[in-house]
Amino acid sequence: MTQMTEQAHAADTRSWWSRNQMRAAPWLFLAPGIAFFAVYVILPIFQSFHISFYRWDGLGEATPVGLDNYRQLFEDRAFYVSLRNNVKWLLLYLLAIPAGLAIALFLNQQIKGMRLYKSLFFFPFVISQVVVGLVFVWFYNPAIGLWNPLIGLFGFAPMNVLGNPNTVTYGIIAAGLWPQIAYCMILYLTGLNAVDPEQVEAARLDGAKGWKMLWYVILPQLRPATFIAVVVTVIGALRSFDMVSVMTRGGPFGSSRVLAYYMFEVSLSEYGFRMGYGAAIAVILFLIMLVYIAFFLWRMWRDERAA
Amino acid sequence: MFPTPVERQSAAVQATYKALVPLALILWLLPLLMVALFSIKPDGDFTSGNLWGMPSSFAGFENYTRVFTDSSMPRYLLNSIFITVPTVIGAVALSCMTGFALAVYRFKGNLWLFFMFVAGNFVPFQILMVPVRDLTINLGLYDTRLGLVLFHIAFQTGFCTLFMRNFIRALPRELIEAARVEGVSEIRIFWYVVLPLMRPAIAALSVLIFTFIWNDYFWAVVLTQGVESQPVTAGITAFNSQFRAAYHMMSAGSIIAALPPVMMFFLMQKHFIAGLTLGAVK
After folding, report:
1. In chain B, which residues fall in CATH 1.10.3720.10?
2. For chain A, what is the radius of gyration of the CA atoms?
3. CB-based burial of residue B148 (10 Å sphere; 0-12 exposed, 13-18 middle, 19+ buried)?
4. b (16+ CB within 10 A) / e for A103-134
5. Quick check: B132 and A44 CB within 8 A?
6. Topology of B71-276 in CATH?
7. Domain membership of residue A190 as a residue range
8. Residue A243's pLDDT is what?
9. Which residues contact B233 (CB under 8 A, 6 or more apart)?
């Protein structure tokens, strides 16, 4: 870096550089980042849209088929199963937010060893989803897992959570919630740390306590934490690929597929390399996500203007 | 403080609380504790039906040694390191520059570029999958660690730019203005004035990206195939089919695969949480 400046000063480009460096510098700094991002992220989005209008096995010639892939999609039972499961994921995943808040409130004390307790509660978030998936596969396993004896304590009959099409998706979502709750918990713990103690004391003198205090005094101050929790939870729910892939491969009978997994299955697995059809599924998933991206950007734009 | 600190309450409440916290923790981590227990049991315990009791003998040492001697696990771990470390360096380096440019200069399109990085960071991976795989094959980088690294650097630059830009924005602007008045060139300002102040952001981002990339599974299965280049998240599947139904071995293998980010977290806890909760407090 320094060398470059020295060269620029020494050569006859000096005057140009010193005259224009305020205008040139930002683009100099941005160039490598933009180049990488454009090639690997921005362009592929448009390419996927393009590919979704073709029939293509990934190797040979691609045949343009117009809207055929989308037409086929709307008659595809597996697509609707995946979509319905995505809705389940989205709704149930949001439980991570109140659950995370509850644990954060439970742990927001100053007893001895609290720091370690908090880290251990946060622990599941640091483990890869693949391992979380495996851990829960064994936990649910009717032969070796603790799940059946555990629910047996409450009088429930043993069940095969991941083998039953009616329970499998809930079983995977529960596993996915585990790290997500930990994430929301840490967001709220940080938020609670910054709650203004004077306001809390003042409200206490006014007789506020319990739920009222939480709703009217604490939660408004936790809004930034809640906003981030919602954003990361929604995105996490729509990205649910790892868990499904590791725990059930979409089974039994395709009943636990989600769009992210079905897309992968269609394009790259034994079902054949139908890249165009896969791209069409990806486009649908992208459009769903776009609603949230637009919402997030709008909020950011508003904050930027206020700043 | 909310809720009311327990110190202000009766001794009975305090004692109950202190007993409740570890109990809740055990329940919370139960699935993981089960796997940890499996990993130190000898094979015989599973056939004799001693699943959740004390291990009949401590076999932890053998099991974990076997993970390293009888499988490709060391290779997968090494691949993970060679994928994760270059990605961290690359993404942090690129985003130091993009973050600086977007935070310090006013120019047309600044906010749009920033939004492009932010939006790109949120897109579902599937919309990138087919073209990125195709590009990687055409570059001759399919099933190589480099192919994976290049993509990861590019994708993480989105999140890192968001992070760095907001961090630099919060630095005192007077420092930069003062340097400009002195006639210091823009590149020197970046290198000598701003970069030293970014150390905490660089630390926080490095631990976060390390964890994200180490734990990546999707791109590992899309862009790599064999033991030569697959990271441990993808390799664990092969490991598990090698030790099919040997739950003590599969448990030990999973714990080994999960360990590096866990250690990173406990060593760099402060930075990790600072990075993760950026923006959770205004």
Report:
1. 71-276
2. 25
3. buried
4. bbbebbbeeeeeeebbbbbbbbbbbbbbbbbb
5. yes
6. MetI-like fold (1.10.3720)
7. 76-273
8. 95
9. A128, A130, A131, B80, B214, B215, B216, B217, B220, B257
Does residue A189 lie in a domain region? yes
Does residue B278 surpass a pLDDT of 90?
A: no
Residue A166 corresponds to which tokens in the numbers above? Answer: 């009616």
Q: Nearest Cβ partner of A191 from B125, B155, B281?
A: B281
Q: Is residue A130 part of a domain?
A: yes
Mutate which of A111, A135, A231 to disrupt the B interface (most B C-beta within 10 Å)?
Answer: A135
Query: Nearest Cβ partner of A2 from B117, B158, B188?
Result: B188
Peptide bond into B3 cis (omega under 30): yes
Domain count, chain A: 1
A249 CB near a chain B CB, below 8 Å? no
Helices (H) and strands (E) in chain B, counts: 16, 0
In this structure, what DSSP letter does residue A123 have?
G
pLDDT tens by residue, A186-216: 999 999 998 988 988 899 888 888 888 899 9
Query: Based on the number of CB atoms within 10 Å of its own CB, is A51 exposed (0-12), middle (13-18) or buried (19 or more)?
Result: buried
Per-residue pLDDT reduced to its tens digit, B40-50: 999 888 888 88
Token representation of residue B259: 């360990």
pTM of the model: 0.92
For range B75-104, the mean pLDDT: 96
Residue from B130, B259, B264 whose CB has the most chain A CBs within 10 Å, to mutate: B130
Q: Is residue A123 part of a domain?
A: yes
Phi and psi (nearest 5°) for B53?
-80, -175
Q: From the first residue on, what is the mean pLDDT of each consecutive set of 10 residues in chain A (307 residues)? A: 50 69 90 96 96 89 91 94 96 97 95 92 94 96 93 94 95 97 95 90 87 90 92 91 94 93 89 88 95 91 84
Can you give the CATH number for the domain in which A98 is found? 1.10.3720.10
Q: If we measure between CA atoms, which residue out of B206, B179, B205, B183 comes closest to residue B193?
A: B179
Q: Is B105 in contact with A26 (Cβ distance < 8 A)?
A: yes
Nearest by CB to B280, which of A128, A191, A246? A191
The type of residue at A286 is F
Please count the CA atoms within 13 angstroms of the CA of B274 that sit on its side-chain side.
14
Within a domain: A182? yes
Q: Which residues contact A303 (CB under 8 A, 6 or more apart)?
A: none
Q: How far apart are CA B125 and CA B218, in angstroms?
A: 8
Say yes or no: A70 contacts chain B, CB-CB below 8 A: no
The residues near B207 (Cβ < 8 Å, ≥ 6 apart) are B264, B265, B268, B271, B272, B275
Tokens of A282: 């990806």
The question of ipTM being above 0.90 is answered as: yes
Cβ distance of B101 and A292 shorter than 8 Å: no
